[in-house]
Amino acid sequence: RKKNEEYAEQWAGDKRRLNPSDLQKLKLHDMQGGECLYTGKPICMRHLIDGSVEVDHILPKADTHDDGIANLALCFKNANQYKDKRSPFEAFSAGYDKQDYASILKRAWKRGGSTYWRFKENALANFKDQEKFRSRFLNDTRFVGKIANQYLSSVVKDPNGMIILNARITSA
After folding, report:
1. Which contacts (CB < 8 Å, 24+ apart) does range 39-48 have?
2. What average pLDDT does the segment 137-144 reach?
3. Global pTM exceeds 0.90
Protein backbone atom coordinates (compact mmCIF):
# COMPACT_ATOMS: atom_id res chain seq x y z
CA ARG A 1 0.00 0.00 0.00
CA LYS A 2 2.80 2.37 0.90
CA LYS A 3 4.50 1.82 -2.46
CA ASN A 4 1.19 2.39 -4.25
CA GLU A 5 0.80 5.69 -2.38
CA GLU A 6 4.29 6.70 -3.52
CA TYR A 7 3.29 5.89 -7.09
CA ALA A 8 0.15 8.01 -6.73
CA GLU A 9 2.31 10.95 -5.62
CA GLN A 10 4.53 10.52 -8.70
CA TRP A 11 1.41 10.50 -10.85
CA ALA A 12 -0.23 13.45 -9.05
CA GLY A 13 0.20 15.86 -11.96
CA ASP A 14 -1.98 13.68 -14.20
CA LYS A 15 -5.13 14.36 -12.11
CA ARG A 16 -6.55 10.92 -12.73
CA ARG A 17 -6.99 8.01 -10.44
CA LEU A 18 -4.49 5.18 -10.80
CA ASN A 19 -5.98 1.89 -11.91
CA PRO A 20 -4.37 -1.54 -11.37
CA SER A 21 -2.81 -1.40 -14.86
CA ASP A 22 -1.14 1.95 -14.03
CA LEU A 23 0.22 0.55 -10.77
CA GLN A 24 1.57 -2.51 -12.57
CA LYS A 25 3.35 -0.30 -15.13
CA LEU A 26 4.87 1.82 -12.36
CA LYS A 27 6.09 -1.26 -10.52
CA LEU A 28 7.64 -2.69 -13.67
CA HIS A 29 9.15 0.72 -14.43
CA ASP A 30 10.90 0.61 -11.07
CA MET A 31 11.96 -3.02 -11.46
CA GLN A 32 13.49 -2.32 -14.87
CA GLY A 33 15.29 0.86 -13.88
CA GLY A 34 13.08 2.98 -16.13
CA GLU A 35 14.04 1.32 -19.39
CA CYS A 36 12.46 -0.99 -21.94
CA LEU A 37 13.50 -4.55 -21.22
CA TYR A 38 13.85 -5.32 -24.93
CA THR A 39 15.31 -2.13 -26.43
CA GLY A 40 17.07 -0.54 -23.47
CA LYS A 41 15.52 2.82 -24.36
CA PRO A 42 14.47 5.02 -21.42
CA ILE A 43 10.80 5.01 -20.49
CA CYS A 44 9.58 8.29 -18.98
CA MET A 45 6.37 8.81 -17.02
CA ARG A 46 4.67 10.28 -20.10
CA HIS A 47 5.24 7.00 -21.94
CA LEU A 48 3.34 5.15 -19.22
CA ILE A 49 0.11 6.99 -19.99
CA ASP A 50 0.35 7.88 -23.69
CA GLY A 51 0.09 4.31 -24.98
CA SER A 52 3.65 4.06 -26.31
CA VAL A 53 4.59 1.36 -23.77
CA GLU A 54 2.83 -1.88 -22.97
CA VAL A 55 3.06 -4.71 -20.50
CA ASP A 56 4.21 -7.85 -22.29
CA HIS A 57 4.11 -11.47 -21.17
CA ILE A 58 7.76 -12.52 -21.53
CA LEU A 59 6.78 -16.12 -22.20
CA PRO A 60 3.45 -16.09 -24.05
CA LYS A 61 0.47 -16.27 -21.74
CA ALA A 62 -1.31 -18.50 -24.26
CA ASP A 63 1.36 -21.16 -23.66
CA THR A 64 2.08 -20.64 -19.97
CA HIS A 65 -1.05 -19.08 -18.41
CA ASP A 66 1.53 -17.22 -16.28
CA ASP A 67 0.37 -13.74 -15.32
CA GLY A 68 2.90 -13.28 -12.51
CA ILE A 69 5.13 -10.22 -12.27
CA ALA A 70 8.24 -12.28 -13.12
CA ASN A 71 6.65 -13.06 -16.51
CA LEU A 72 5.80 -9.43 -17.27
CA ALA A 73 7.93 -6.81 -18.99
CA LEU A 74 7.41 -3.13 -19.60
CA CYS A 75 8.37 -2.45 -23.20
CA PHE A 76 7.75 -0.12 -26.07
CA LYS A 77 4.73 -1.02 -28.17
CA ASN A 78 6.76 -1.61 -31.35
CA ALA A 79 9.07 -4.09 -29.54
CA ASN A 80 6.05 -5.92 -28.11
CA GLN A 81 4.45 -6.13 -31.55
CA TYR A 82 7.71 -7.41 -33.03
CA LYS A 83 8.03 -10.06 -30.32
CA ASP A 84 4.42 -11.12 -30.83
CA LYS A 85 3.64 -14.54 -29.30
CA ARG A 86 7.23 -15.76 -29.30
CA SER A 87 9.72 -16.32 -26.51
CA PRO A 88 12.35 -13.60 -26.12
CA PHE A 89 14.99 -15.95 -27.53
CA GLU A 90 12.90 -16.68 -30.61
CA ALA A 91 12.18 -13.00 -31.19
CA PHE A 92 15.42 -11.27 -30.26
CA SER A 93 18.31 -13.77 -30.36
CA ALA A 94 19.45 -12.43 -33.74
CA GLY A 95 19.27 -8.88 -32.35
CA TYR A 96 16.65 -6.18 -32.46
CA ASP A 97 16.68 -2.40 -32.91
CA LYS A 98 20.49 -2.16 -32.73
CA GLN A 99 20.50 -4.37 -29.62
CA ASP A 100 22.43 -7.60 -29.47
CA TYR A 101 20.93 -10.38 -27.39
CA ALA A 102 23.67 -10.09 -24.77
CA SER A 103 22.42 -6.56 -23.94
CA ILE A 104 18.87 -7.81 -23.59
CA LEU A 105 20.10 -10.62 -21.32
CA LYS A 106 21.93 -8.10 -19.09
CA ARG A 107 18.71 -6.18 -18.56
CA ALA A 108 16.83 -9.42 -17.86
CA TRP A 109 19.53 -10.41 -15.36
CA LYS A 110 18.94 -7.15 -13.44
CA ARG A 111 15.29 -8.23 -13.01
CA GLY A 112 16.48 -11.36 -11.19
CA GLY A 113 16.60 -15.09 -11.72
CA SER A 114 12.83 -15.58 -11.81
CA THR A 115 12.75 -13.39 -14.92
CA TYR A 116 16.16 -14.15 -16.41
CA TRP A 117 15.57 -17.87 -17.10
CA ARG A 118 12.66 -16.92 -19.36
CA PHE A 119 15.18 -15.44 -21.83
CA LYS A 120 17.10 -18.66 -22.33
CA GLU A 121 16.79 -20.68 -25.52
CA ASN A 122 14.84 -23.54 -23.93
CA ALA A 123 12.64 -21.45 -21.63
CA LEU A 124 9.31 -22.73 -22.94
CA ALA A 125 10.44 -26.36 -22.68
CA ASN A 126 11.62 -25.72 -19.10
CA PHE A 127 8.28 -24.14 -18.27
CA LYS A 128 6.45 -27.21 -19.55
CA ASP A 129 8.68 -29.40 -17.36
CA GLN A 130 7.69 -27.24 -14.37
CA GLU A 131 4.03 -27.69 -15.32
CA LYS A 132 4.44 -31.48 -15.08
CA PHE A 133 5.86 -31.01 -11.57
CA ARG A 134 2.98 -28.72 -10.60
CA SER A 135 0.45 -31.28 -11.79
CA ARG A 136 2.10 -34.03 -9.72
CA PHE A 137 2.35 -31.68 -6.73
CA LEU A 138 -1.35 -30.74 -6.95
CA ASN A 139 -2.29 -34.40 -7.19
CA ASP A 140 -0.23 -35.14 -4.06
CA THR A 141 -1.84 -32.17 -2.32
CA ARG A 142 -5.32 -33.50 -3.14
CA PHE A 143 -4.38 -36.84 -1.56
CA VAL A 144 -2.98 -35.16 1.59
CA GLY A 145 -6.17 -33.06 1.83
CA LYS A 146 -8.31 -36.19 1.62
CA ILE A 147 -6.30 -37.92 4.40
CA ALA A 148 -6.36 -34.74 6.53
CA ASN A 149 -10.12 -34.55 6.11
CA GLN A 150 -10.54 -38.18 7.25
CA TYR A 151 -8.32 -37.63 10.28
CA LEU A 152 -9.79 -34.28 11.32
CA SER A 153 -13.34 -35.61 10.90
CA SER A 154 -12.57 -38.24 13.53
CA VAL A 155 -11.03 -35.68 15.93
CA VAL A 156 -13.25 -32.61 15.52
CA LYS A 157 -16.64 -32.72 17.23
CA ASP A 158 -18.37 -30.55 14.62
CA PRO A 159 -17.14 -31.61 11.15
CA ASN A 160 -19.34 -28.91 9.59
CA GLY A 161 -17.00 -26.30 11.07
CA MET A 162 -14.07 -27.67 9.08
CA ILE A 163 -13.17 -26.89 5.48
CA ILE A 164 -10.55 -28.80 3.50
CA LEU A 165 -9.73 -27.09 0.22
CA ASN A 166 -9.14 -29.16 -2.85
CA ALA A 167 -5.76 -28.40 -4.50
CA ARG A 168 -7.49 -27.51 -7.78
CA ILE A 169 -9.00 -24.52 -6.01
CA THR A 170 -5.58 -23.22 -4.97
CA SER A 171 -3.82 -23.97 -8.27
CA ALA A 172 -5.01 -20.86 -10.13
Report:
1. 39/75, 39/76, 39/79, 39/96, 39/97, 39/99, 40/99, 40/103, 40/104, 40/107, 41/76, 43/74, 43/76, 45/10, 45/11, 47/76, 48/22
2. 66
3. no
